[in-house]
C-alpha cells in the first residue's frame, strides 16, 4: 500500500540530489536540510508553534463567522442578496494587499496574521455551510412542516445535520489553508518576529537555503497532520454518511 | 357529539391551484370539492398530473389553494398541523440518515411541543391519550430488531414501514399518504398493505391515501375517489366490502366488479381531452 509513495519519494529524492548538485544556488543538498532540522529542532518547533497558533486562531474565528453568516443567508433571502456578492469580492481580493492596513489597525503582533487567516478561511466555509443548510430534501421538510416544527427546530434537527458533510468538506480545505494563510501573513505583514513564514523570509534573504527548505518541510508536516486531524473528526461525526460506507 | 358535525374530517370546497403564470400555467386542481368523513379510509386515484398529490399537499397545509377552501377538522390545514392533527407519509420515506430508526420515529413527537394544548380544542383522537409506545409500534410492523440501526441499513420496504410508524406515532386525526408503496415490489407492497390495514383498524383515524394502483385503492378503501386530468374529480366509488379485508378478497368477484368500475372511470378520465 505504501510502495507507490515510497517509490515516488525515492525518485524525488534522487531528482533533488541531482538538482542540488547541478544548481547549488537553487537547492540545498538533502543532507544539509536534514542536518538543519535535527540540529535546530527546538528552533523550528518553536516557530511552528507560533504559526500554528496564528492558523488555529484565524481558523476558529473564520469558522464561527462563516457559520453564523451561513445560517443567516440560508434563512433570510434578503440577507443572502446583500451579503453573498460582498463575500465573493472578498474571496477574489488578494488578502495580502490589505496586510499593511491591518498592521496599522492591529499592530505588529499576531493579530494581523489571525485576521488575514480568518479572511482566507471564511469564504469556503461560508459557501459550503449555506449550501449544506439548503440541501435538506423536500419530503423531509414536508414531514416536519406537517407537524408545524418551528424554524429553529428545523434548523437544529434537519438543516445543521444535513450541512455537516458540506461543512467538513470545507474544513478539509480550510485546515491546511489556515497554515498557508498564517505563513503568507507572516511574509507580508510588517514586523513579524516569529513563525515559520518569518523564518523563511529571513533565511531566504540571507541565502540560507537549507533553513528555508527545512521550514518548508516542517510546514508540510504540519499541513498533513492537520488534514489527518480533520479526517479523523469527519469520520467520527459522519459515521452515517454515504461517503464513509464506500470503500 | 352530533354525527353530522363530526362527519367531515377533511373538507375541500372548490379548490383551485395553478402553477406558473401566463401561457405556460398548469392547472393542478380545477375547483375540486371533496369530503372525507372522520374515520374513513379514502383513496385518491388518477393518472399522472391529475392533481392528487397537490390535493394531498393542500390538506397537509404545505400549500394554500388559489381559490376555494380546505378544512381539516373544521380549521385551516396549517392550524391543524400546528395542533399536530396531521400525519404525513411522503412518497419516499425521508428518514433522517443520521438518526436511528427509533430516534427517527420519535422525533416528530419532540418538536412543536405546544401542540398538545391546541389539540385539545379539535381532533378526536389526541385527547388525553397515552403517548404511543414507539418501540412497540416498531415491533408491530416487524422493525423491532432494527430499531437502533441507521436508515442506510434498511431495505426500501423497511424504511417505508418506519415512515408509516413515524406518522402513526403522532396518533393523528388525519393520516395523509402519498403513494407510499409505489416504489416497492408487488409482494412487499401487499405485505405493507396488510400491516397498514391492521394498524389502521386499531387506530381508526381518517386516511387520505393517494395511489395509482386500482387494486390497492379498492383493497384498502371505504371510498375510491377517481380524479382526471387536469385536476377534477371524475367520480366516487364506495366500496361495499366488509372489513377486515382479507388477502383472499382479491379472488372475490365483487372485488373485480369494483376494480372494473374504477377502471372505467379512469379510462374516461384518461381519454378526455385536456381542458384549456
Which structural traits does this protein have?
heterodimer; A: 247 residues; mainly alpha; MetI-like fold; 81% helix; B: 276 residues; alpha/beta; Rossmann fold; six-stranded mixed β-sheet; three-stranded antiparallel β-sheet; 10 helices; 9 strands; disordered N terminus
Can you offer a commentary on this structure?
The complex is a heterodimer of chains A (247) and B (276). With 247 residues, chain A is mainly alpha-helical. Chain A has one domain (29-245): Orthogonal Bundle (MetI-like fold), CATH 1.10.3720. Chain A is built from eleven helices and no strands. The model of chain A has no long low-confidence stretch (mean pLDDT 90). Chain B has a domain at 3-84 and 113-125 and 172-265: Rossmann fold (3-Layer(aba) Sandwich), CATH 3.40.50. In chain B, the strands form two sheets. A six-stranded mixed β-sheet of chain B has the order 5-6-7-3-8-9, with helices on both faces. A three-stranded antiparallel β-sheet of chain B has the order 2-1-4. In chain B, helix 4 runs parallel beside helix 7 (156-168), helix 7 runs parallel beside helix 8 (186-203) and helix 9 packs across helix 10 (253-271). Chain B is globular, with a radius of gyration of 18 Å. The model of chain B is unreliable at 1-5 (pLDDT under 50). The interface between A and B is medium-sized, with 21 and 29 residues.
Shape of chain B: globular
Mean pLDDT of chain A: 90
Series of secondary-structure elements of chain B, N-terminal to C-terminal: HEEEHEHEHHHHEHEHEEH
> Which CATH first-tier class of chain A would you pick?
Mainly Alpha
Provide the β-strand percentage band of chain B.
15-25%
